[in-house]
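Feature request disguised as a bug: please show the residue count (369) next to (wild Malaysian banana) hypothetical protein in the output. Example input:
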Amino acid sequence: MAHVELRGPMLGARWLLLLLVLTSSLGPARPEPRVPCYFIFEDSLVDNGNNNNNASLAVANYPPYGVDFAGGPTGRFTNGLTTVDVIPKLLGFHGFIPPYARTRGQALLAGVNFASAAAGIQEETGRQLGGRIPLSGQLQNYRSAVQEMVRILGGEETAATYLSKCIFSVGMGSNDYLNNYFMPALYGTSRQYTPEQYADVLTQQYSQQLRTLYNSGARKVALIGVGQVGCSPSELAQRSPDGVSCVEEINSAIGVFNAKLIGVVDELNALDGAHFIYINGYGIFEDIMRNSAAYGASVTNRGCCGVGRNNGQITCLPYQAPCAYRNEYLFFDAFHPTEAAIVLIAKRSYSARSPSDAYPMDIRRLAKV
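Example output, currently without the count:
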């Protein structure tokens, strides 16, 4: 491109006028998000495409998934938005947090979704479903992203300051129960550990993984508790005596694990500059289920789409039309909530409706720390 030297007050005035015209035509500037970036580590509840190219049964990049999403099927395991689509919007982000599988360079600075369907705290969790990225692999991908951000931002100190202002959302553990502990034919953990012992094993490993995240720059971390897996249509169909009552054996084990996460939060908040919080996903979903009629959800024990079994995985059958009134269903498939339920969960995670929703604060307050 040729070098053009601009001189003279008239030319400067013309450029100023042009700039004013262009600025006015673009409308008012949009406000900046409350935090500069948002990073996500989880499983199929928020995977938005990282598993699409894996040799895996845990994929959702086909209809009817995404039937209510503007981009159609993307890898999201629901009909529309996930919680990590809704929460960034509440934080003021203007677009969706992209999957790490197709994000590099400058785009990393706004945050990345590292979530992978079937992923767990334990390496072997979900192995019967094929390719997936366990939490350890997600952390490895994050460290690679940090190295790139250090290069972009011009140094480790600058990158550390930048990352300290971001929010990190971490929600692991459901597959360690659903696709590990409660699959005795494939995994030996339920024979090796009592629910109390297994919760100890998980939280000890989880705590170390979260320290790794802290050592790589994370300071504001929202730890998402495991939901009521024992109330999912899949577990109701397989284990419930009447097809309606939640499976207490599963929910009780998850309750033990979630209770220990409070201690993990307290432990990690002793680290310099750390602000870890716990979002009570179990309690929030329990309240939504108990008061489902008030929320307009009349169907709580089955999914909105047709489901099929593929080596133990129950997902929507490809290209089958889902139910017409999706807002009336809590679940879209045999495991994952509908967008209607997800929006309720996300809003309460962001701004707690009751003191039990978040500890010691909600995501809205975390953003202000």
